[in-house]
Structure formats: structure tokens, C-alpha cells
Task: inverse folding
């Protein structure tokens, strides 16, 4: 970036240059180490120790969260007036096998994989912290920053609530995060003001009846038919009971009923997710879903029990902070490095932070430019173009400095 463009930034903030060759290589190695040793939610002890050790090596004082995994770390001194700008990363992995071939950093843990990019998120926040810590040592950090490394994002209702209870938002005024996006090229970020993810809840249903012979379904509760009707008719019923713009959707992922072809079972189970695009629809969803299931089950003389597990609300990006991320990316990489992104139906517990402080999440491009093969999130073959790490570090650091320049 030229000195002329730097001078145009709010407060004439001077941004640090590109990462040194040594730091770039170190961050890639750190990400690969995490990738090889994935840990599930609330079990991220090795990951927490690795982050803690590197921050301490940089002269910082990280604090492990009360649950024993995850940590926060302050850079700069809070004077009680100007609040922290927080960077959040999630550190847990998924319970699926790593199916990548031909890479030396495949998971070494059976049926565990960083298939959602949390290793990349963690490394970018760590890298930004190291850059800003150096600026602070030189007296050039104009505002305090807090790093949040949060456990258990993949475990509903997410580890964010526990992290918040541990005090990670005390003194925080704004918060930002990134999420890997395999549909966006490395070097580019996707932004959206307003909702960028959907709400996601978990739904577990049991249906019961007296059972019987398949020759005489009229004498009992035809439980398999009742289950089939709940599966097909509940989503259709909900579509007529909520504003279509809310995007309320029930999708089933598991059905278990019966053991023999000529026996009507006494017990059936089904489970799935409830997703919603906006907050009003999400808040109304539990009552609507309960009523629809009970209505269909009663029609078929089945007894229903419903376990509706609240997950996460949608991530709703603050427009001012979204614009801050846009300015930061353009300052570092130019206007072509930002694109608009659509609202995802995936859930993200970053939303819980936004119930307390304004913030925004950016989509971090991790697709190798020109690559034809698609590696979607939550698949065992997911991988990231590691050039995205440097992009994320630059985005966080530039956002911190431009935000401080605005206030100045």
C-alpha cells in the first residue's frame, strides 16, 4: 500500500507492512500443527496450551477461561474510557474423519478433523495479536485489543455463552471475527451488513403408540405412518404459519422406527434442525414447532414428546463495523479484494456476542483461485489455501488501527 493511500485513512493511521517471511512461515506451521491435532468442543486442552505458550513467548499474559479450555488475552492497557476492540476465534474441531490425501498435515486423530476452518480462524487471530503486540511494545498501538479464543463453537448452544460468562466481554466495546468460506478466493473477503448467518436450533421428537400387527393398522396407532406425516407435513404446515421472509425451515437428519417388516412399532424417534433467517421468526419458532408436531401426532393417535434445544440466533452484522472491515480490507488489498456475500443458512455462536456488543463477521476466502474442485465446510476433504492466513491477519490489524484513527 502506498504512503499516499495510508495518508487518506482516518486519523492518518500508518498500517504495518506485510508479514515478515519468518512470521508467515511460523503461522502456517502453527495452523498445520492444529490441523494435525484437532480437539472437540470443551476438550481443546492441547490447542489452548499451544496458543497460551506462543502468547506468553510474545510477552503477553493470556488467561485460560474458567472451563479449562479457551483463553483471552489483552494487548495494550485499558484506561477505563476507551473500550477494547475484540477479535474472536473459535478453536474446536468436528467429530468426522479427515479424508484429505497428499498433504502432510492430515489429522492424526481418528474421526476428528478441522473441517470448518477453526484452525485458520485461530491462527489469524494469533497472528494479528503478535503483530499488534509488537506495535504496543514500540508505543504505536493506539487502542487496547482483546483476543478471544473460544472453545466449543460446534456444540449447541455454543461455547460463546460460557466465554461471555467468564468475562471475555468485560470492557469490550466492539467485536469482529472471520469465518472461512470455500466459495470465495483466497485474498478476498465477503461482507454483508445485517444478518449473515441464520439461527439454528436442534429438534428431537419421540412418538409412541401401543404397537401391533401390520395386518391390522386400524386397531392400533400406525406409528411409522405417523412419523412419515410429521416428517413431511410439519415443514409444510410451518410454511403457512410464519412470514415466508423469516425463512423458518425444519430439516430432518435422523429417523429410527421399527425392527421387523410385519410389526408396527411402539416407539419411534426423529431429529433434525430448525433454521431461521431473522430474530422475530427465531423467537417464535419453539411454540410454532411444538404446535405443528402435536397437531400431526394427535391426528394419527400418537403420543409425542418434543425436546426443542435452543441453539444460536442469527449473526446480525452492525453496519458501521461492517464498513470498518470493508475499509480495512480495501486499505490493505484494494477494492477488488472485497465482495458482497449472501446470508448463509449455517449457524454461528458468534451471534451471542452480538447480543451484548456491536460487531461483525467477515467471510474469509480460502479457495485457491482457479481451483475447480469444491471442498465445502463440514466435509472431511475440506482444506484452506493458507494464503488466507496472512489476509486475515492484515484484516484484523488494519481494522484495529483504522478504528482507532476514527476515534482520534
Result:
Amino acid at each position: 500500500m502506498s504512503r499516499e493511500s495510508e495518508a487518506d485513512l482516518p486519523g492518518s493511521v500508518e498500517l504495518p507492512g506485510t508479514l515478515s517471511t519468518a512470521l508467515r512461515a511460523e503461522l502456517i506451521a502453527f495452523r498445520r500443527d492444529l490441523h494435525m491435532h484437532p480437539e472437540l468442543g470443551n476438550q481443546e486442552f492441547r490447542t489452548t496450551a499451544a496458543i497460551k505458550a506462543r502468547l506468553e513467548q510474545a510477552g503477553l499474559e493470556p488467561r485460560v477461561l474458567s472451563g479449562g479450555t479457551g483463553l483471552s488475552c489483552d494487548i495494550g492497557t485499558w484506561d477505563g474510557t476507551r473500550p477494547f476492540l475484540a477479535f474472536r476465534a473459535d478453536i474446536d474441531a468436528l467429530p468426522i474423519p479427515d479424508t484429505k490425501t497428499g498433504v502432510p498435515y492430515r489429522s492424526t486423530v481418528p474421526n476428528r478433523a478441522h473441517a470448518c476452518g477453526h484452525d485458520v480462524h485461530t491462527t489469524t487471530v494469533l497472528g494479528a495479536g503478535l503483530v499488534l503486540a509488537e506495535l504496543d511494545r514500540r508505543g504505536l498501538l493506539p487502542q487496547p485489543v482483546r483476543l478471544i479464543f473460544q472453545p466449543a463453537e460446534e456444540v449447541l448452544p455454543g461455547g460463546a455463552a460460557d466465554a461471555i460468562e467468564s468475562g471475555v466481554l468485560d470492557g469490550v466495546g466492539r467485536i469482529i471475527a472471520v469465518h472461512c468460506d470455500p466459495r470465495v478466493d483466497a485474498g478476498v473477503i465477503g461482507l454483508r451488513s445485517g444478518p449473515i448467518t441464520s439461527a439454528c436450533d436442534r429438534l428431537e421428537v419421540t412418538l409412541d403408540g401401543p404397537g401391533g400387527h401390520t395386518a391390522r393398522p386400524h386397531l392400533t396407532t400406525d406409528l411409522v405412518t405417523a412419523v412419515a406425516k410429521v416428517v413431511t407435513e410439519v415443514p409444510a404446515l410451518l410454511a403457512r404459519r410464519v412470514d415466508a421472509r423469516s425463512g423458518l425451515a425444519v430439516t430432518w437428519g435422523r429417523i429410527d422406527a421399527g425392527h421387523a417388516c410385519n410389526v408396527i412399532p411402539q416407539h419411534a424417534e426423529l431429529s433434525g434442525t430448525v433454521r431461521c433467517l431473522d430474530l422475530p421468526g427465531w423467537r417464535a419458532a419453539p411454540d410454532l414447532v411444538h404446535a405443528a408436531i402435536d397437531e400431526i401426532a394427535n391426528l394419527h393417535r400418537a403420543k409425542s414428546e418434543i425436546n426443542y434445544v435452543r441453539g444460536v440466533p442469527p449473526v446480525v452484522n452492525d453496519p458501521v463495523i461492517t464498513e470498518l472491515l470493508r475499509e480495512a480490507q480495501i486499505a490493505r488489498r484494494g477494492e477488488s479484494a472485497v465482495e458482497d456475500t449472501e446470508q448463509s443458512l449455517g449457524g454461528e455462536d458468534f451471534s451471542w456476542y452480538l447480543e451484548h456488543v456491536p460487531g461483525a463477521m467477515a467471510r474469509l476466502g480460502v479457495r485457491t483461485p482457479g481451483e475447480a474442485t469444491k471442498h465445502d465446510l463440514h466435509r472431511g476433504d475440506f482444506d484452506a489455501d493458507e494464503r488466507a492466513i496472512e489476509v486475515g491477519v492484515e484484516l484484523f490489524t488494519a481494522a484495529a488501527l483504522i478504528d482507532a484513527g476514527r476515534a482520534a
